[in-house]
Amino acid sequence: MLRRTNYDGIPSSEITSEQVYRERRELMKLGAAAALLGTSPLMAALGYEKAKSPLELTSFDQITTYNNFYEYSTDKESPAKLAKNLKTRPWTLHVGGEVQKTQTLDIDTLIKKIPLEERIYRFRCVEGWAMVVPWVGFSLSSLLKQAGLTSKSKYVEFETLFDPAQFPAQRQTFGNIPFPYREGLRIDEAMHPLTLLAVGLYGKELLPQNGAPIRLVVPWKYGFKSIKSIVKITLSEHQTRSTWNQIAPNEYGFYANVNPAVDHPRWSQARERVLGKFFKQDTLAFNGYGADVAHLYKNMDLKKFY
Ligand SMILES: Nc1nc2c(c(=O)[nH]1)N[C@H]1C(S)=C(S)[C@@H](COP(=O)(O)O)O[C@H]1N2
Ligand SMILES: [Mo]
What we know:
alpha+beta; Sulfite Oxidase, Chain A, domain 2; seven-stranded mixed sheet; globular; disordered N terminus; binds molybdenum atom
């Protein structure tokens, strides 16, 4: 648990004592916030490595009350209210398909086995709003390595819980969202160290509205790729399904990399509004993670593979 992740682009050698001092204060603030919110007993017992980042965090309140979770509702405020009783234990995560060892993992066993880290990431929804979230989790790659890849492990499909008794929108016979919600990544995207499975935020276990007990976070892609409340991960030789791509392929691509140069057919993607801020800011290519991920797409026309 002594690894230091530094994905904010600041080489440790350039960190001045002033910065160290400031970061310690930030950490203390974070610690105090976690104490106030009540760090989950599980995560407190395990400990996790705190991150440092020059990014200004979006408040816990904003992150947990402004959500997209269509299994509950299409508005932003309802998920926080409707998700309160989501049963997140016991919870099993099935990892199968083109892997060496199919696994059915109990969520708590998994969390105890894999070292957790804090990752402060920008998060950009395709709708034009953005936030900065201090996630707690681990790289998806560590889970996939455990299952063992084969020459046929070329794509990864994720699936959210299907349980109409708990998710009101899954009981509706009208509407055009084909549940369970599914998302997919190419294997090199899935194995990239930035690709996170999150189990917490702000030092606390994830709340249901944010995708408890375990959700994907791919910081260089639009938010809809970051699928919530995952029960199944399936490796495949072929490109996997993606719910939004299935609903409206002209609007939502399989790749969905944040790209200010490729507009959504109905709005511009050049700018974004960070929750809690008044002025809009420029959207960055790959949401600011280009130095880490642009090479994954070097021979691809990103206007075609949006
Ligand atoms: N299962 C599921 N996952 C989902 C969604 C959803 O409706 N259902 N919405 C997606 C969208 S559009 C976004 S922007 C993010 C929002 O995550 P947040 O509510 O934690 O901010 O979750 C993504 N994951
Ligand atoms: Mo989104």
